[in-house]
Amino acid sequence: MTSAPSTDLFIDPMSREGEQLPDAGRLVGSPPEGDFTLAARVAVGFRSTYDAGVLLLHAGERVWAKLCFEYSPQHRPTAVTVVTRGTSDDANAHEVMGDRLWLRITRSGAAFAFHASADGRWWQLLRYFTLGPEAANRVKIGFMAQSPLGEGCTAVFDRIAFQREAPKDLRDGS
Asked: Which residues form a coiled coil (predicted)?
């Protein structure tokens, strides 16, 4: 998946209402009802700050969450999470050694969890959250590439897996 130049899905908390319109293209679909897990290994052709390959939860124009393999301002591949409920937050989890990272989104009831893994077997919980009571049932899931400050970014998603269940323990690494 290749993003267009200057594209992102982020509403800066310092912006004024209506000032920013998220504009990153994405490929999303509706998951089945109930718990699920979507995982993929992501490789990104990093060139500019904030270039990223993303697993996305999208529930509306100003309601979404993204799990990113992103190029930090320090020019390091980094696991990043963003949750948007009106405006976005931004949380850098950890730097990544290598050019690939496994990402995983889980829905368990009305809650979501973001995990990252170096090997696709042991998972580190990065975030546990909700998008609100109605959002869990209208959320779409999928993939995105972004390049907010660059000329475009290519992200390759492989080893994509979908299960109609959540891990039994979201915190134990399984």
From this structure: none
Interval 138-156: pLDDT, tens: 999 999 999 999 999 999 9
Residue with tokens 């000329």: 151
Query: Residue 78 CA to chain centroid, in angstroms?
Result: 12
Phi, psi of 49 (to 5 degrees): -55, 135
CA dihedral 148, 161, 58, 118 (to 10 degrees): -40
Q: What is the dihedral of CA 13, 18, 23, 24, to 10 degrees?
A: 30
Distance CA 63, CA 70 (A): 20
134 contact partners, CB below 8 Å, separation of at least 6: 59
Using DSSP's 3-state secondary structure scheme, residue 66 falls into strand
* Integer CA distances (angstroms), 120 to 39, 98, 102, 104, in order: 9, 14, 6, 9
Distance CA 146, CA 149 (A): 9
All domains in the chain, ordered by first residue: 26-162 (2.60.120.200)
Q: Is 81 left (phi over 0), alpha (psi -120 to 50) or beta?
A: beta
Tens-place pLDDT, residues 51-99: 999 999 999 988 999 999 999 999 999 999 999 998 999 999 999 998 8
